[in-house]
Structures are given as structure tokens and as C-alpha cells.
Inverse folding.
């Protein structure tokens, strides 16, 4: 009993060290689990993933620790493990945080400790995201229906393109050639309804196009994600040769700032309110709206400029309530038009206003002014 209390105190003291105060894998604060095989401190979520391929997981406070196990923790710790297992992580490889979906966190953990992808040793065959070329089959949702069908995808880093075919046979030509320049990829497991669901978004000449895909194998879908990120990173390094990794890495891919349903009326604010799915993209300063959340193309877009450029966002109570079921309004004022949007809950109204004002408060770049000039309100 004396040893148990002494060992528990040693572990709690180790947790006070800055490098051990966050989960070794996702960065969640106050980890209360540990792997005594690796000597790392973990959050509950990551400890569960480790437990699936290693039984050497214990609770810091609830489990019994013997002297040998505690000595392993003292001799290692998160910083030591990072120096070994994350020695050579490519700058474009996505390192998940605690809020990311399970498949990203799990594959990050398996890539580090099972496949040993980042130790700096030469791998054969090399990881696909290092080769500049990748091809394979993904299940893709139809543009006009909800059916997912197998489609062949080919990524070429040299050509900065992602191409997909309606058949495995490429002889009939591609269905689409997507340029990496305007491409984004983000995991959307809940929206797509699959634990490996990935949304690929790109710009066409006239609108934004969404592809919703998944792969049954978790390693394969995360490989696709990092292959896309590798190509995006290569493009950014070419387009901005003086840009640092600190500047470029956040631009590789992004999660959207906020998504959800709101009701929207027309330009005269007398038209019937209709329920629409909204997506707020912080990087492009655009609020897109769709008829439904899995639509391939948007119905319209609202540019979010700064107050100094005559844009404003405020809570609002509309005069007309034709077809309106929700009561918590938002007025988005642009130099060209006013938009009235309605939220179901007051909490959602506050969240949307905060998100929109976050973008509004950021100064506009030359690229933002160019994008603003191309907006055509419907």
C-alpha cells in the first residue's frame, strides 16, 4: 500500500512537467492514462485506441502501478517518445487534435507506434504520401442522388491534379480533372454518415463543387487525405516560394468554421423563408448555402467583408414571417444586398454571429478583394 501511494505520487509529479501535461497523441489537457510500454501519458480517447493494439495501458489514479512500470514512465515521458516516434513527420502530414474524428486520431497513433512511419528510417515500400502519385478506388456519392458508387481516383503531384473516372477503365476518359490549386479536403463523418467520410471541395468556372467519398479501410482514407495534403503543400511551395511552413501549412486544408441549417428569405425580404444548409469558410471569407447538406453545388454565396468596407452582422427580428418557423434572426449586410437568416435556437444565433464577426474582424488581403469583385448575388 505504501509503494502504491508512493508510485502514484511519482506519476502525478511527472504529469506536472509541461511536456507530460497534455496527451502525447492529440494534445488534450490533463491526461490521466498512460502506456507503460511506450512511457507516454494519454487522454481517455487516445488510451482506448492504444488499448486496441496494446494491453499495457493503465489509469494514473485508479490502477495499481508497480515499481518497474513507474521506472519506465520516469525514464521516458512524452518528450522522449516524441523525439523517437515523431522525429521525421512531414510538414504536410496532418497531426490531429482532441476534437478531430476518430479515424484521424487512430491512424495517427498507428502510423507512429505500429507502422513507425516517422522515425526517420527508410521505408520500403515508401508511404504513399511521399511518392507524389497515388491511385485507388473510393465510394463516391452521386451528384443527383444519395447512392454511393465505386469510382477510380488518381492524384498526380507533378501535374497538381486529382482526376476521377466513372469506371475503373480509364479508356473512356475522366469524369473530372480537379486542380489542386483550388481544392480542400475535410473529414465529414457525421454529415456523410460514415466513420471514414471525406468531403472534397473545389472551384469550377462558375461555382463550388462538393464530392462526398469514403473508403471502407480507415488507413486508406487517411492516406488519401494526406496524399492530397502533400500535393497541396507542394503546390503552395511552388506558388509561394518564399513562404515559410508556418505560413503555408495552415493553408493546406481546413475545417469549415461553422456549418448548419438556417432559414433564408429572398432579396426583398418578403419572399417565403426556406430552410438551407450553410457552410462558413474562414479562409475564403465566404458563407455558402445549399438546399441540403450533401448537395454537390451551392445555391448561392455571401462574401463576408470588414466593417470598414460596409459589411455588418447583427441580430435581427424580420418584419415578414412568411413561411418562417424559426425566430432568432441574423442580418448580414453587404454593399450589394441585405441577407436575413433565421436560426432555430438562440444559442445557434449567437454562435453564427460570433463566427461571422470573427471573419469580419480580420483585415482583407489583396486576394480577398479579388474574390469579392467576382461575387454575383442570386
Amino acid at each position: 500500500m505504501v509503494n502504491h501511494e508512493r508510485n502514484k505520487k511519482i506519476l502525478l509529479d511527472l504529469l506536472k512537467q509541461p511536456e507530460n501535461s497534455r496527451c502525447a497523441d492529440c494534445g488534450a489537457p490533463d491526461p490521466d492514462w498512460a502506456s507503460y510500454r511506450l512511457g507516454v501519458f494519454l487522454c481517455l480517447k487516445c488510451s482506448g485506441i492504444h488499448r486496441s493494439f496494446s494491453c499495457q495501458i493503465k489509469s494514473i489514479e485508479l490502477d495499481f502501478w508497480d515499481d518497474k512500470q513507474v521506472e519506465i514512465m520516469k525514464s521516458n515521458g512524452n518528450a522522449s517518445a516524441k523525439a523517437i516516434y515523431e522525429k521525421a513527420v512531414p510538414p504536410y502530414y496532418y497531426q490531429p487534435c482532441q476534437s478531430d474524428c476518430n479515424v484521424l486520431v487512430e491512424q495517427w497513433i498507428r502510423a507512429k507506434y505500429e507502422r513507425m512511419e516517422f522515425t526517420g528510417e527508410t521505408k520500403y515500400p515508401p508511404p504513399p504520401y511521399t511518392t507524389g502519385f497515388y491511385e485507388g478506388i473510393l465510394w463516391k456519392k452521386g451528384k443527383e442522388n444519395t447512392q454511393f458508387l465505386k469510382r477510380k481516383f488518381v492524384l498526380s503531384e507533378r501535374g497538381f491534379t486529382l482526376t476521377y473516372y466513372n469506371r475503373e477503365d480509364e479508356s473512356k476518359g475522366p469524369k473530372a480533372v480537379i486542380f489542386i490549386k483550388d481544392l480542400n479536403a475535410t473529414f465529414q463523418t457525421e454529415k456523410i454518415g460514415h466513420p471514414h467520410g471525406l468531403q472534397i471541395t473545389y472551384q469550377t468556372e462558375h461555382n463550388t463543387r462538393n464530392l462526398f467519398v469514403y473508403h471502407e479501410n480507415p488507413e486508406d482514407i487517411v492516406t488519401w487525405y494526406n496524399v492530397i495534403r502533400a500535393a497541396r503543400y507542394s503546390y503552395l511551395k511552388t506558388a509561394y516560394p518564399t513562404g515559410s511552413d508556418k505560413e503555408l501549412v495552415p493553408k493546406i486544408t481546413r475545417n469549415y468554421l461553422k456549418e448548419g441549417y438556417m432559414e433564408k428569405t429572398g432579396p426583398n425580404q418578403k419572399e417565403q423563408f426556406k430552410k438551407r444548409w450553410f457552410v462558413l469558410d474562414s479562409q475564403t471569407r465566404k458563407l455558402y448555402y445549399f438546399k441540403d447538406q450533401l448537395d454537390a453545388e451551392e445555391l448561392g454565396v455571401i462574401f463576408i467583408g470588414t466593417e470598414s468596407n460596409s459589411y455588418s452582422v447583427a441580430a435581427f427580428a424580420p418584419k415578414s414571417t412568411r413561411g418562417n418557423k424559426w425566430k432568432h434572426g441574423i442580418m448580414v449586410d453587404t454593399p450589394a444586398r441585405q441577407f436575413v437568416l433565421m436560426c432555430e435556437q438562440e444559442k445557434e444565433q449567437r454562435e453564427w454571429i460570433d463566427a461571422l464577426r470573427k471573419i469580419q474582424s480580420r483585415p482583407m488581403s489583396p486576394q480577398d478583394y479579388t474574390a469579392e469583385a467576382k461575387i454575383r448575388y442570386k
